[in-house]
Amino acid sequence: MGRFLLCLAIGCALLAYILNPSVPDGIEERWKYRLVAASFKLYHLVGVAYSVFTSGDQSANVAIATQAAVCLALDHVSTEHEGPGVIRTRGNFNGTRVYIYQPPQSSDELLPGFIYFHGGGLSMGTALSFDGIARKISSRLNALVVNVDYDNTPKNKFPGPIRQAFAAVKWFLLHAREYGVDPRRIAVGGDSAGGYLSATVSHLVHDDKTLPELKLQILIYPWTQCLDFHFPSYQKYTKEFEVGEGIVCREGMIMFCALHAWGSARPELFDRMMTNSHVGPSFKKSALYQQTLAHGLLPDSYRNSSYYEGPSPSDQGDEEFWKTSKEIFLDPRFTPHFRKNMTGLRLRLRWKHLVKRTLL
Ligand SMILES: *[C@@H]1O[C@H](CO)[C@@H](O)[C@H](O)[C@H]1NC(C)=O
Ligand SMILES: *[C@@H]1O[C@H](CO)[C@@H](O)[C@H](O)[C@H]1NC(C)=O
Ligand SMILES: *[C@@H]1O[C@H](CO)[C@@H](O)[C@H](O)[C@H]1NC(C)=O
């Protein structure tokens, strides 16, 4: 009996911890939010538990275990109802795994194409975790959708995911007609890390003169930089949620960025990023940094609020550390902000109605 009560108490404590009731104001679907936040916590716990039994880099092990838990939870849920009649097949576009979604309406005309890159911090989930949205896009737009199943970090760190993403897009642009798709009506898009891949791949396509231009790039709350984790949005988030809470907290983004850059988020890297000290003071004062990432470039409304405490000091940072990693951070494939010429990229940040209008 005593043991049972103890188990019950531990179980309740765990459940209370996981279903932490703090839900920020302004969120309408409070239970949905709670469930998503709870599942993130649960995955993290599974990851930590797993890493106790494995040796090597703990941060990488947590990430790997978290991925396994996410796939277990999401990849086996049936989402066929999201796009009735849409047919999914597997493909391999020059070495990159993809899923291809064919809409039900058949006609002799070439279809528009939509290449989707899923989110998950480049570290969680697979293309199949986003099967529902791929089916929905295919069915609603009557478009052929390619859902790209790139490999996750830390095993596939920078520039691995970019190479796989570009290989798939290049292949599809050159072979679109074989799939009944008009190569002049192909868009790329994705959420979060998928937005980052879409932006970067659009740059690479634009620069490769053997390829037709993409029709459109759609970035849904994209991840675009790993140099400053104290932008007003990060400050607002940290004020409104508890530290480490919520769905995409500063700590989470730092983990994703570190796993992408170095294949590890060990404390020495993580702690530097928490204070923006991974970037050297000299670079923070450079023209490139000032023209792309200075807080003064943001609209006033972001900086005039009660949560904003100003940018982190520009003289903070470690010049020696920066020298060892700046090659990665300055690469526009890692930081799309640093692309010099943005002309002709057909970028859209909001996509309501737009996809339909542009592709059809
Ligand atoms: C296929 O990938 C290789 C590199 O792996 C690349 O050299 C080649 O250009 C790609 N071909 C196409 C058609 O994308
Ligand atoms: C923000 O504050 C500055 C001065 O502190 C003021 O000039 C500006 O009009 C304010 N902007 C907004 C959008 O409130
Ligand atoms: C920027 O790119 C556009 C289109 O790709 C090109 O026409 C223009 O000359 C470029 N500008 C510079 C300064 O290189």
UniProtKB/TrEMBL annotation:
GO molecular function per UniProt: hydrolase activity
Domain called Alpha/beta hydrolase fold-3: residue spans: 115-238
SUPFAM superfamilies, per database record: alpha/beta-Hydrolases
Record's signal peptide: 1-24
Swiss-Prot/TrEMBL keywords: Hydrolase, Signal
Source organism superkingdom: Eukaryota
This protein's name: Putative neutral cholesterol ester hydrolase 1
